[in-house]
Amino acid sequence: MKYHQIDRALFVKNRAKFMAAMKPNSVAVFNSNDIYPVSADSTLPFAQHRDIFYLSGVDQEESILLLFPDAPYENQREILFLKETSEHIAIWEGEKLTKERAFEVSGIKTVYWLQDFEKVLNEMMTYADTMYINTNEHYRASVETETREARFVKWWKDRYPAHQVAKSNPILQRIRSVKESEELDLIQNACNITEKGFRRLLSFVKPNVTEYEIEAELIHEFIRNRSKGFAYTPIIASGNNANVLHYIENNQQCKAGDLILLDVAAEYANYSSDLTRTIPVSGRYSDRQKAVYNAVLRVKNEATKMLTPGTLWKQYHVEVGKIMTSELLGLGLIDKADVQNENPEWPAYKKYFMHGTSHHMGLDTHDYGLLHESMKANMVFTVEPGIYIPAEGFGIRLEDNVVVQEKGEPFNLMRNIPIEVDEIESLMNS
């Protein structure tokens, strides 16, 4: 891995939190992701399943974690299963985890090779009453590929039909959404790498540069700072491309006078950051662009203040909508009649700001978190309002990542990344 080894104490704490929420006499199993094929012998780069990483720190394919807090013997309560390494594998694929190295990474003392999994699991099933299976219940999930986890669930249900079934996901949604201090440090590092990439762009962008050249500058800066690259598919949208919310072609030339909406951020150690800035191709905003930009910035700043313990996500978005409505009235994009006659299910402001303002962030860019439960300290959220005006040929979105505090306003993990008009213009023209 490119990143520095994470202190295994984090994963010890994470497992303890999960096991404390399990039913008596139950087992939980977590599988790594597959390496997905492209065609012929080509594959996509491996990306670890975030749940097994969160609980073990193991960042390797063909790994399994078994948790059994009520096991009759202490050495059965946490077990890792790994693909057996060999000299041949080391030559062709590089170093894989040994049993000793796995303990250093995870803090788990009992490590078997994968070939022993079925035998060991069978013994655990004779002691246990319930199995926790790990299904994907994220509110944005849309999965068509059968995952390694899904194959295991089918196999286990067929093999052990007499056991009770419980779900891991609700536990993970709660504990993963509240970050440990070590996790906040990792996310901060991802944000710091993102800052370096963004500052690099401010001296690089000029008329006639292409969106893909900007993408290349970012990936260079991210990787040289120990990131694997982008935390998500980058959006580098110049001119009217910014009005396509998930524009990812990044193949157009940036024209003088236009704006570029940059929704781009680095990962670090599998933790995400999520930045959006909108900058002028020519280094200066027009008066109209500046007016809309500052309106978006005011919405972002006011919305941020509302991210406090006890806040409900749905109500928060209603309040943000009221602030945005006021700004759109001031910009002349809507009028009082539009507001008075609006459909409550799709308020007038939605014509220019049609997406949500905040989502959880962490190991996943759209991270775990139960939206019907109130916000808690040490949750990390994005704040990303935007105004999109196809008729005027530009869209503006601004986004920071913040940590909910016990008291007061959230802590901005992107506080050092330029966002004010004057600072961006000054850096672009220095």
What is the structure about, briefly put?
With 430 residues, this protein is an alpha+beta fold. It is 35% helix and 15% strand. It catalyses: Release of any N-terminal amino acid, including proline, that is linked to proline, even from a dipeptide or tripeptide.
Strand and helix layout:
Elements: H1 9-20, E1 26-31, H2 50-56, E2 64-67, E3 78-82, H3 87-92, H4 99-106, E4 110-113, H5 117-127, E5 130-133, H6 148-159, E6 164-167, H7 169-177, H8 181-202, H9 211-223, E7 235-238, E8 259-263, E9 267-268, E10 271-272, E11 276-280, H10 287-305, H11 313-331, H12 336-340, E12 380-383, E13 386-389, E14 394-397, E15 400-403, E16 411-412, H13 421-428
Parallel strand pairs: 1-5, 3-4, 5-6
Antiparallel strand pairs: 1-2, 2-3, 7-8, 8-11, 9-10, 12-15, 13-14, 15-16
Helix pairs in contact: 1-2, 8-9, 10-11
Cofactor: Mn(2+)
GO molecular function: manganese ion binding; metalloaminopeptidase activity
GO biological process, one term: proteolysis
